[in-house]
Amino acid sequence: MKNSKSIQFILILFSCILGFQSVIAQDKISYEDFSVLNNTSWKGTLTYSDYQSGELVPISATMQVFVSEKGIEQNIQYTYEPNKNVKAVTKIRKNGRYLGKQEVVSKTIGTDGTITIITLAKAKDDNKKATLHFTYIFSSNSYKVTKEVQFDDSTERFFRNSYEYVII
Predict the structure, then answer these.
(1) 2-167: what fold?
(2) Tens digits of residue pLDDT in 74-110
(3) pTM for this entry
(4) Pairwise CA distance, residues 103 & 106, whole Å
(5) What backbone torsions phi and psi does residue 81 show, to the nearest 5 degrees?
(6) How many CA atoms lie within 13 A of 165 on its CB side?
(7) Cα–Cα distance between 34 and 9 in angstroms, integer?
């Protein structure tokens, strides 16, 4: 009788430990996840919510992506605003738990190979403290990043911008 209670206690304890580990587990990313984007060219649109009017504004853009162990390099050209062009390198940090300064919340891989990565970052938006919610969805022929903002004094999230591209 004592033995069965000890076994039950051990099984319950083991179940609790496994359950706790799954609660604190965090998806990790690697440069391999982004390898499908390496040495590619894209065309698409940046759509952003205008700070004054709230209207959605589309801007034509092209992008080239290079992936290596040094980082994910993105070269973005805005077709009608070349003075706003951007070249950025984002590093995967903290053993795959961060994409640049964004904390990785989840990573899923669809049956078609599409990768979805969700990240969070603390920052300011419109001079207010906020949490930025990023959703990256990409495959060998499409790439989309959406940014949503949630001010620290609110429970509501709203769309700020998205980049949506197709391979060229």
Answers:
(1) Lipocalin (2.40.128)
(2) 999 999 999 999 999 999 999 999 999 999 999 999 9
(3) 0.84
(4) 9
(5) -140, 65
(6) 25
(7) 44
